[in-house]
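Write out the bound-state structure for 2-phosphoglycolic acid.
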Amino acid sequence: MEIIIQPDSRAASALAARIIARLVREKPHAVLGFATGNTPIETYKNLIDLHRREKLDFGDITAFNLDEYVGLDPAHPASYHAYMRANLFDRINIDPEKINIPSGLASDIPISCQHYEDLIRTDGGIDLQILGIGTDGHIGFNEPSSSLSSRTRIKTLTDRTRKDNAAFFGGENNVPRHVITMGLGTIMDCRMCLLLAFGRKKARAVAEAVEGPVTAMVPASILQMHPRAVFLLDEDAASGFKRAEYYRWVYDNKPDWQKY
Ligand code: PGA
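---
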């Protein structure tokens, strides 16, 4: 794992966008995995900026999103379809045909999940998956107790996650209970995972994911088994680490060829 601690979320988001932009420049047909929530919004703003100012070209990339709420129409303002359109897709030159987001309206959920897995495979696998982390340690919507080798499937949200997402729905009671999410096995197949976490409320989940045991009770801890997982954090999200000074030293002393 690579742990990068930046002074604040602005600097971390700018670096995240640089890492993504570099991949898109090197591999115009890259397959990118996108995440939703508050955390990646600033990164997406930076990508939109790079598209406008430096003509960063998203015309050939393919996108796969991590998850979607069951029962929400793509037009619903709190759906992740709507989120992605508003925060990124409508503001860059991505080909709408190459956007993939799990369907919250599928009549046969297991078949639709299998189809999603098949699409990822047919497109050659995900080159870089952006991840947030829940206060309960989830990635995607893989809540604690998720199988560490799970694939795309339906999950039931914990009360804590429903509370965390209540603001998007005007109250906890309106947050759907079920979601479709890529599994932990699906995420582990991505060639690179870039996890972003900002703020003190994420410090405990981040510390447990990085420095605790690998356990289904902290789903993000499976990234300890990933060959290329990067945790990109602000100071607050890094405040629970026991070995922060070591991670800082490693990052500050990277050889030039390893720098982003
Ligand atoms: P957040 O959500 O970015 O809104 O904090 C992260 C997550 O639940 O994965």
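---
The helical segments are 9-26, 41-54, 80-87, 109-122, 159-164, 184-188, 203-211, 244-252.
The chain has eight helices and ten strands.
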